[in-house]
Structures are given as C-alpha cells and as structure tokens.
Amino acid sequence: MRPYVFVLPTAILAAAIATPAAARDLTVVSWGGAYQQVEKEIYFDPFRTTGIPMREDTWDGGIGVLRAKVEGGDSSWDVVEAEAESLALGCEEGLFELLNWDAIGGRDAYLPAAVNDCGVGSVIYSYVLAYDGARLPDGPRSWADFWDVKKFPGKRAMRQGPKTNLEIALMADGVAPADVYKVLATPKGVDRAFRKLDELKPNLIWWAAGAQPPQMLASGEVAMTTAYNGRIAAANDADKKDFRIVWNGSLFTIDSWVILKGSPNVDAATKFLAFVGKPENQAKLPTKITYGVTNKAATPLIPAQYLPGLPTNPANMSQAIELNAEFWLENIDSLTERFNTWAAK
After folding, report:
1. Lowest pLDDT segment from 135-144, 227-236, 268-277
2. What are phi and psi of 98, to 5 degrees?
3. 96, β-bridge pairs
4. Within 13 Å and on the Cβ side, how many CA atoms surround 216?
5. For residues 119 and 113, is the Cβ–Cβ distance under 8 A?
C-alpha cells in the first residue's frame, strides 16, 4: 500500500520555510577581541535598548566567506564589518544590499573615503610594527629592523596572507613608502617582495585574529609583530603592558559596515547603521580604543588627550601609507593563491 502523503499548499510551505530566517534577531558581525568588546559597550548594548533584538558574531575576514554565505543562501548574518577590498569586491559582485544613505545620516556627513554605495566607513586603523618595551627597551624603528634577527633575536609574527606583508617586505628592502604600490604593480616587484619574505621565513609565525598579536607579545612567543594599532594600545591599558608602536611605515585603512544581500532584517540593519554612525556615538570609540572615526562631526567631540595615539593624528599619518584597496581588489585572489603556495613550502 502506498503511504498517505499530506502535501502543503505552496504558499504555506514557502511561508514556513521563510519564517525562521525572517523571525530571527538582527545579527552583527565584527572582528572579536578588545575591539568588539568596545563596540559592545558603546554601540551594541546601547542599540539593544532601542527595542531591536540583536546578536553578535565574529569573523577573521575574507571575501570567500561572504561569497559562500550569500551564494549558498545562508542568511544567518545581516551586518558585517568588512575590509576595504572585501567591500569593493562584494559590491561589484552583488553580495551586499545598496545602502539607504538618507536613512543613515547622508553621504555628506562622512569622510569621502568612508562613503560607498554598499558600505559606510566604521573605523580608521593602522597596521603597525609592535614590540614589548619591557623586553626591548631600545627597540626597532623600521621594517628593516623587523628583519634584523641578529640585532633583535626572536620570532616575528605577521598576519597570514599577502595583504600588508608584501608592502612591508618591500619597505624592509628599501623601497620608499610612496613607491610601494608602483613597485608592487610589476611582476618583478611581487617577486622582490616574496624574496624578502624568504629571508624572514625561518623566523616567522602567522596570526589570523587581531587579538593574537598582543597575546604573542605577552607570552614572549615573538619579539615583535605586525598588529592593529588599537589592539596594542588596548593591551597596554587593560594589562598594564609596555607594548610600543612604530608608526614609521604603518599602513592605514578604513573598514566598513555592509548589509549582506538577502538579509531578512534590512530595516533593522539600516537603523543599526544610523545609530552607530551618529557623531556622539562614534566619538566614544577613541576613548576606549585608539582608532579613528568616519563621521566628520565626531572628531571635534573626541577629548584632546586621546588624539596623539590615533592613526588620524597628523604626526602618525605623515609616516604612514594608505592601504591600496584598488590594488588588492585586482590582485587579492591571485596573490593569495601564490602566498598560500609559498607559505606551504
């Protein structure tokens, strides 16, 4: 006997499938560690008091993760804090919703570099050289010193992947910061960067999450590391460390909030972006972690004592180069493949 099969009408079935996604809380994804703890304090928890339920998640970046989420129909994330090339690639590939700028304060409220059809700048930060002053009172002053394992013995840590490491390798090899991307735009320049990384490879270990560099310094696992400037300052404040930052040759960039395509919570996500973009809210960020802000009206609200440690401080910015998102938009996939092959040897 054939079993009896009850068939739901199509409309009811579709509603049943859609309901769990539509009913879930707004999910916001950031970088974890000390930075997300600050976001929780100044953005996430206050936003929850507006009556919109919200949950948090963390990630370590990568456009492939976002592609898999959207193309695979995984609607578990709504708002994601993404790096510049992920913003550019994802917007080009249709992975993000177009923002309603009128609902989040308007384009003119933000620094020009923080404005994109698919994303709004969340934070300005720098990749820096960091070391423990308690172990190295007369520490490194440049990326060339980072490579000098005779003068400064010990392991080095760098973020796993080609981005920032190729630029840093060229500066360590004597390329002027202003010329880094001219050199890196050529095959010979890329080869030169990898040859320089070859020199340091026996002394290199890798980090993936921003919380790792201060942990590696604290444990003595490495003598120096690349790091996000704010994570180093946060460790000094929280754990009374003497970690020091070398701004010379630092690379600054802007992360952005994006809304993943197909999010069932676009309205709530837009309200979240409006909330975290308010100048009075953004101005709290540098008082907790030394990152710059993107709303033009926020900077005058930042107490003066916090300005020297910010990437946006002119004294620090004058020693830095901007991470070239256009270069990485064009080259991230091919150079990541080459980097992974190189690292596995």
Report:
1. 227-236
2. -75, 135
3. 260
4. 26
5. no
Place of tokens 């995984």: 74
**Residue among 121, 129, 137, 158 at smallest CA distance from 277:** 121
Say if residues 162 and 336 touch (Cβ distance below 8 Å): yes
81: which 2 tokens? 């804090």
303-328 confidence digits (pLDDT tens): 999 998 899 888 898 899 999 988 99
Give the separation between CA 232 and CA 235, rounded to whole angstroms. Answer: 5
Exposure string of 216-251, with b = 16+ CB inside 10 Å and e = fewer, is: bbeeeebbbbbbbbbbbbbbbeeeebebbbbbbbbb
Cα–chain-centroid distance for residue 284? 19
Kindly indicate the confidence band of residue 74, based on its pLDDT and cuts at 50, 70 and 90: confident
pLDDT in tens, 171-214: 999 999 999 999 999 999 999 999 999 999 999 999 998 889 99
Report the SS3 class of residue 284. Answer: coil
d(CA 288, CA 319): 24
Please say if the pLDDT value at position 103 is more than 80: yes
Q: Residue holding tokens 């206050």?
A: 46
In contact, 172 and 144? CB cutoff 8 Å: yes
CA distance 165 to 63: 18
Closest CA to 165 of 339, 345, 341: 339
Residue 17 has pLDDT above 70, yes or no: no
Do residues 90 and 258 make contact, with C-beta atoms less than 8 angstroms apart?
A: yes
Q: Nearest-CA neighbor of 248 among 154, 331, 152, 171? A: 171
Q: Is the pLDDT of residue 11 over 60?
A: no
Q: 3-state DSSP call for residue 199?
A: helix
For residues 224 and 202, what is the distance between their CA atoms, to the nearest angstrom?
Answer: 15
